[in-house]
Known about the structure:
The complex is a heterodimer of chains A (307) and B (232). In chain A, the strands form 3 sheets. In chain A, strands 5, 6, 7, 8, 9, 10, 11 and 16 form an 8-stranded mixed sheet that branches. Chain A is an alpha+beta fold and 307 residues long. In chain A, a hairpin with a 4-residue loop joins strand 14 and strand 15 (281-294). Chain A is built from 6 helices and 16 strands. Chain B is an alpha+beta fold and 232 residues long. Helices cover 29% and strands 31% of the residues of chain B. Chain B has a 3-stranded antiparallel sheet, with helices on one face. Chain B has a two-stranded antiparallel ribbon with strand order 1-2. In chain B, strand 1 (13-15) and strand 2 (21-23) form a beta hairpin. Chains A and B meet through strand 4, helix 3, strand 5, helix 4 and strand 15 of A and strand 4, strand 6, helix 3 and helix 4 of B.
Amino acid sequence: xxxxxxxxxxxxxxxxxxxxxxxxxxxxxxxxxxxxxxxxxxxxxxxxxxxxxxxxxxxxxxxxxxxxxxxxxxxxxxxxxxxxxxxxxxxxxxxxxxxxxxxxxxxxxxxxxxxxxxxxxxxxxxxxxxxxxxxxxxxxxxxxxxxxxxxxxxxxxxxxxxxxxxxxxxxxxxxxxxxxxxxxxxxxxxxxxxxxxxxxxxxxxxxxxxxxxxxxxxxxxxxxxxxxxxxxxxxxxxxxxxxxxxxxxxxxxxxxxxxxxxxxxxxxxxxxxxxxxxxxxxxxxxxxxxxxxxxxxxxxxxxxxxx
Amino acid sequence: xxxxxxxxxxxxxxxxxxxxxxxxxxxxxxxxxxxxxxxxxxxxxxxxxxxxxxxxxxxxxxxxxxxxxxxxxxxxxxxxxxxxxxxxxxxxxxxxxxxxxxxxxxxxxxxxxxxxxxxxxxxxxxxxxxxxxxxxxxxxxxxxxxxxxxxxxxxxxxxxxxxxxxxxxxxxxxxxxxxxxxxxxxxxxxxxxxxxxxxxxxxxxxxxxxxxxxxxxxxxxxxxxxxxxxxx
Lengths: 307, 232
């Protein structure tokens, strides 16, 4: 037989470009596990009028002051109000991609267009917030000890410290993947009454990719944003209850003269495009005005795990 | 040159027009480390934050643990301001430092001279300040001077100057924290470690990892024993 059309040789091979680019895209490995929507975090709202930072008041009410017994017809003296303050100082974060008209025409991925890049920026904003939260999490009182791998003893000590400090739930543990695997390896060799409940696929969809499961009433997330401590000898994992960490995202309106505006999550992320017609280029810019704060340091613990 | 190397490593030539072609100069090696960008930072000491470090194999010492205040705008009260010299928006840690100082933390002076050693523990000189800036693949990276990156293949590894770091911690202890932890703080640290050793020890007979943790903590507790013996 001759003159067959084969893709491996002859005319058939000539018809094919080599290498050809596959249509579509695959996501590169990376940390995309956002903590934003976990109920242990306090959303401090989207307004900030008259100043660039906001003070939060923490009051000792609703049972923290006990009453005094007094004798008949005696006056009771005043009790000083217990109060503390925390200050959140949001900062503007931005990300920009710019693409030419040719890049858009020849794009084999389907991602080189303002709408897709704009949606990608929502993920970038969420990870920026998660990074800020991880930066807050390494400053609590430490449990565990330097140079020792994160073990079940560290877990127990951390949760015990929160309970002993009267911290209400829900609790959230954020662990570096290395510390998490150190812990699960340790957990496997221990016997005990409490069961590790790994995340089901459905729960991972609900909670996000970093959700690993639940242990003893504490939801466990892994995050690559967890910071190094002690000159990078340890990871600053953290566990906290609601009221320890808060975040403030300032709401934004649409910018004038913009053709595309995405206002995501109640308008706290604004993405717009900016066109330079003479150069045939389109820039996509994401804006996120965000800050985090430790509202009450006693509600969290930094759990050391060796790197 | 072996044929299986990627084309970017193949010999290059430059056109000289009518004179033919000449081998071009080898490309300059620009080492850009593959580390995510990170901002400048201050180290903060606290009279309440101590731990037992293994300063040499089998030798343990009670030293302060330091908190890192990264100048990342938006967290811990770090404000965003315009740098008058560069025009860039950067983190201003003023309020954050004040907040931490209010909680009893002390900033380790950024102007300190620090001793540096190589990986074998041989002295390689001194340097002013404990932070240094290097170029990462996505921007500036700030590290403490005791963490030195090196590239191998397409990956970045870190060499840690443990000796220098412990000298630095001893200086923090002696010059900022009164030379030793408060007896109550030291006792509380000892109790924490004893408790960890007890909890791990109870499971040591059926869990090899609990046994290992128990041994590690017991070794650390030796730091307190030797201190007591020293006092006698």
